[in-house]
Design goal:
The protein has 11 helices and 11 strands. It is an alpha/beta fold.
Amino acid sequence: MDIQNLKAFLEIAESGSFSLAGQRLHLTQPAVSKRIAQLEDELGAALFDRIGRRVTLTEAGRALLPHAKSVQLELQAAERSVRDLSGEVSGQLRLATSHHIGLHRLPPVLSDFSARYAGVHIDIDFMDSEQAYDLTLKGDSELAVVTLAPEDVGHIIARPIWPDPLDFMVQAGHELTQQASLSLPALAALPAILPGLNTYTGQIVKRLFDSHDLPLEISIATNYLETIRMMASVGLGWTVLPRSMLDDTLAPLPVDDVVVGRTLGVIYHEGRRLSRAARAFIEVLEAFGEPR
């Protein structure tokens, strides 16, 4: 079974598109189609259904997928082993991260890493932290720099890098800012703009209110923290955001006896042998982290 044909199969399965797979492989679409035709002829089964512009795996394709991924991981491990003999830090590093961390935490890390290890090509995928966990579990991302899950996730190694305090905030000049202190019950009765409860940050806030047997009056929920900051800044409700996002459009709210926060860090699969590039990236990342 030809390795290049398997690579084309994996790219199409991931992207859902022959043309996108061609772009990633630096091939024309007909060349990609030829590779899949060869693989289908060899296996004696169709691997993709093509309905209009939509490309989906057939039953045979779904059966092949985990085996193809396993072959890909073994090849990557073989390449790493050879590079490790020379002590060279090079090759490709596939990294997943959230938009917030990509904007506010990673730029100096990436700049320093690139200056030290010019031979490493970093392929960055931006997504929600929860999606990054899934990608890492599937073996599709070597490292992910994310908001760490509130509880341990099986088969995932999580290494804390930055504590990230969260603050209650509201529009600057809002009447709530005139109060010397606030209670959680008082806030629970007012509309909130919060990260979706499918996110780790949203779950942290929800657990806080649940621990006090309080409901949450969520008027708007979104996964994008920059959007939440904008909506809170125009007076649509109070919110909880990383302290680092506080600006002159928002004011912090002093909530009685409440300390809330999350942790940002790096994750990888416990069964994965990390490349030299990944290990070097973790070292640089930890150098930029908070001392513990």
